[in-house]
Inverse folding.
């Protein structure tokens, strides 16, 4: 199965999965069993399925053959190189290759001068006028080549301007850009590039992120704090003729293996093995030398040898263009592609599966509880009315008094429910006060003031560390409030279940652990990039402050925005079952009382009402069967493995 076939299989899986969830949504609406909260949750789940993207980032120092590898893996169908690939630096700025429905083929370039505005790339993506956008002829390889070559454009600027734009400058050229004899520094012309064209893989949701070398990576903290960590797979490219150099090791440790090997989706391509095909070595000797290099690379990067893939991107590209299967086999690219897909797609599928199934299962269970409560109410009414057959008026009057009494008892219980709602509201306000964006905004302002007022490096470091301590403390206080809310609702659920027979399961829990881990990751990045003696001593205070808030604080805000959205969804979800069943129980009591009243007034309506209830019972049983069928369909679809070899295998796994 080719790369396009595998991505197509994943895309088709998402479409089929979305259809099953849409079936649930339509069925709930048709049967008037949904509510506004459930509709929002299903819409969110469907949006995630339909807009799902897979980001693969390529990272390397210059002249490792990274762009050639991207050409070989993704663009050989054009019969030529699409991304510029030659000796020296060809990718001077982070470049995203993508396509979304409604796009037009184009290349958008963000001028390097935008760094002086202290705005992030993510923010500037919302303003088209900040970018230079050129049309692309996606049917012409030559047109694509000419346009894409622009990502390698550079300019020479005075040393002071380069530093003002955030580039590290080092006379030795080891820890920054090396000035020329005229004291000018060569910098990229562009800060970021977005290339949109309708390639089959990009149409399936793939996003390719091509990154520049070490000096350019370090100058764009947003790349290292957001784009690379959030990529679903990172392919780190080395060259067999250079091995693992010090700069390679720096890129790997600082920007790729930040979780120290604990994360999936981090693969290493040892490129240019065709340098060993010199006609003097036999195949056995070539194999021994390749194996030795793989072991050496694995040891230097502290990873298993199975994560290192020796390849020849150049030979693979030429072989694919010429249809040379023997040379393509020698290039070994197929093994890397298989590993990339087998590591990327199942992991991504599992994330999508867990998130969507969680929403769907919760709503299905909520609806099933509602239908079971409705069925119980109907059967209780049937039992009561059946017992009234042949009874005199006094028995009917007794039954009416009994239902009235139950209604009064339930209304007294509602007072406790309303009291819990009041406490829930207060706890919710406390939770959002700790987790809300206002609290983060206040903390950001305090930190900025403390940094600007500090006279010494220790004060700067202390202010930045305090920022992390305080937002982590806010998360911990939020966790305490969540525990209190869960405990209170659990007690209320149990009370209504015991006292009034409501069918309620314990409310689902919520954890802030993922946000705490993200803050931990940000703090680690902060320690690597900002909290160093070199950075503190060599960076002007105002510049350091600005950099900190353009990168770290912006990423912290994104984390809190996600946390706010998730916790608000959870708060609505945990109250919804209780609110729905309370309304349903009230409605059932009202119907019971009205039925007995009508029968009291006209005994001949008893049999008619019994028939009505029997029909309602069958209708609810039918709805329960339909809901079960829809739920089984969702689980069958989400249980399928996108990389399975055939449908029989999928069906067996789902069963």
């Amino acid at each position: 199965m080719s790369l396009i076939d595998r991505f197509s299989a994943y895309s088709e899986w998402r479409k089929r999965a979305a259809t099953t969830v849409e079936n649930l949504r339509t069925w709930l609406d048709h049967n008037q069993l949904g509510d506004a909260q459930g509709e929002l949750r299903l819409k969110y789940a469907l949006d995630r399925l339909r807009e799902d993207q897979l980001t693969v980032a390529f990272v390397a120092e210059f002249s490792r053959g990274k762009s050639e590898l991207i050409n070989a893996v993704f663009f050989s169908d054009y019969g030529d190189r699409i991304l510029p690939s030659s000796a020296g630096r060809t990718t001077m700025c982070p470049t995203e290759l993508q396509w979304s429905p409604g796009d037009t083929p184009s290349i958008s370039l963000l001028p390097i001068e935008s760094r002086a505005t202290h705005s992030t790339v993510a923010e500037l993506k919302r303003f088209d006028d900040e970018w230079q956008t050129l049309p692309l002829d996606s049917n012409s390889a030559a047109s694509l080549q000419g346009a894409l070559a622009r990502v390698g454009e550079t300019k020479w600027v005075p040393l002071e301007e380069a530093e003002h734009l955030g580039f590290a400058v080092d006379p030795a050229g080891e820890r920054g850009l090396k000035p020329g004899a005229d004291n000018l520094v060569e910098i990229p012309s562009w800060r970021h590039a977005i290339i949109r064209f309708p390639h089959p893989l990009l149409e399936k949701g793939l996003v390719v992120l091509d990154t520049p070398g070490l000096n350019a990576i370090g100058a764009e903290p947003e790349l290292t704090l957001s784009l690379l960590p959030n990529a679903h797979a990172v392919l780190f490219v080395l060259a067999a003729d250079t091995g693992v150099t010090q700069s390679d090791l720096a890129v790997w440790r600082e920007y790729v293996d930040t979780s120290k090997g604990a994360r999936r989706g981090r693969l290493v391509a040892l490129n240019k093995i065709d340098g060993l095909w010199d006609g003097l070595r036999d195949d056995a000797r070539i194999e021994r030398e390749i194996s030795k290099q793989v072991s050496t690379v694995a040891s230097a990067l502290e990873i298993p040898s199975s994560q290192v893939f020796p390849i020849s991107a150049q030979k693979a590209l030429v072989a694919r263009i010429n249809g040379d299967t023997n040379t393509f086999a020698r290039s070994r690219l197929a093994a890397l592609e298989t590993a990339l897909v087998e590591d990327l797609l199942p992991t991504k599928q599992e994330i999508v599966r867990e998130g969507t199934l969680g929403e769907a299962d919760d709503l299905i269970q909520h609806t099933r509880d509602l239908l079971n409560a409705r069925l119980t109410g109907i059967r209780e009414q049937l039992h009561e009315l059946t017992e009234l057959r042949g009874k005199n008026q006094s028995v009917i009057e007794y039954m009416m008094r009994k239902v009235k009494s139950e209604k009064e008892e339930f209304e007294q219980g509602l007072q406790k429910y309303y009291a819990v709602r009041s406490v829930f509201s207060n706890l919710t306000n406390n939770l959002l006060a700790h987790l809300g964006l206002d609290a983060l905004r206040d903390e950001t302002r305090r930190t900025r003031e403390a940094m600007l007022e500090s006279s010494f490096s220790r004060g700067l470091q202390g202010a930045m560390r305090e920022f992390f301590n305080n937002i982590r403390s806010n998360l911990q206080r939020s966790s305490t409030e969540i525990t209190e809310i869960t405990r209170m609702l659990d007690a209320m659920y149990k009370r209504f279940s015991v006292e009034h027979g409501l069918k309620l399961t314990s409310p689902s829990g919520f954890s802030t652990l993922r946000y705490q881990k993200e803050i931990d990751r940000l703090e680690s990045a902060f320690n690597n990039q900002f909290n160093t003696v070199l950075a503190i001593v060599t960076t002007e205070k105002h510049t350091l402050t600005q950099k900190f808030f353009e990168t770290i604080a912006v990423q912290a805000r994104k984390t809190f925005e996600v946390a706010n959205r998730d916790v608000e969804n959870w708060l609505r979800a945990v109250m919804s079952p209780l609110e729905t069943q309370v309304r349903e129980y009230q409605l059932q009591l009202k119907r019971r009382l009205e039925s007995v009243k009508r029968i009291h007034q006209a005994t001949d309506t008893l049999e008619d009402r019994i028939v009505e209830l029997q029909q309602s019972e069958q209708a609810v049983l039918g709805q329960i069967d339909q809901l079960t069928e829809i739920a089984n369909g969702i689980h069958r679809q989400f249980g399928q493995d996108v990389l399975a070899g055939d449908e029989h295998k999928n069906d067996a796994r789902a069963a």
